Amino acid sequence: MKYTSQLAFIKTNYYQLLPMIKFFRKTRQNLLTEGKTEKYLKYAIGEILLVVIGIIIALQLNNWNETRKKQNLKNEYLVSLKNDYRKDTVQLSDRIYQNKKRLKVLMHIYPDSLSTSVTKPEEFISLFKNKFGKGLRVINTYNTNSFNLLISSGNIDLLDKQFRESIMELNRLQVFENQVSLGNRDYFFRFMSNYFLKYPADTPFNSINQILWNGIETNELPKDLMAYFGQERYTIERYLELSRDVLLQTELVLKLLEDLEN
User: Fold this and answer.
1) How far is CA 77 from CA 18, 36, 144, 158, in A?
2) pTM for the complete prediction?
3) Is the confidence at residue 58, as pLDDT, over 80?
């Protein structure tokens, strides 16, 4: 593609030089007719030099133009990547904060409360109603459109080696975090679904709740709650560990982007 562009550029500039070349050619023919061989050779050499110089200038202009286009394209990618990573930073910071709050609650419940203060069946039922099945937010949705376009278009080579390696590492961390968190979340939801089949879900009506719990065997409820909260705690702790790695790498990439701008 590059050489095709250069040949087209040379061809265009050759046609622009054509009037001058025709002038030299006509002059040479006249000199040859008049028998002025020495002047004929000088004009012939001049014509060759004119063509060579024209081609060299054309190539330099074409290379400059191609370099300018690549730099503009590179700058567009850098701006898009910066916007994507800023959005990711906001999302990650919020998700980490929310999950740290939930983890703090879980650390109070498991194993402390379940092994000490919560001892009666009605206390375990109350704990199940108030703390069980509160949802899980451990899946990050990263803004990868700009990165994916860089890869699919082959324009990743426009970027400097250090920066290119940094965003490749960031993508690796993002993919790994998503895979692990998705697997842990799905396992946890299956875990939770089994308990909803075993114990009644809470409703806004206390009288109905009381009826639903009548006849429910609660001997295994303490053990089940221990397992449930333990699994939820592990899922969130693993999410926080991997998301912090992604956040640190994202901030590093943003710092490199700022350095490139200066």
Assistant:
1) 41, 62, 12, 9
2) 0.73
3) no
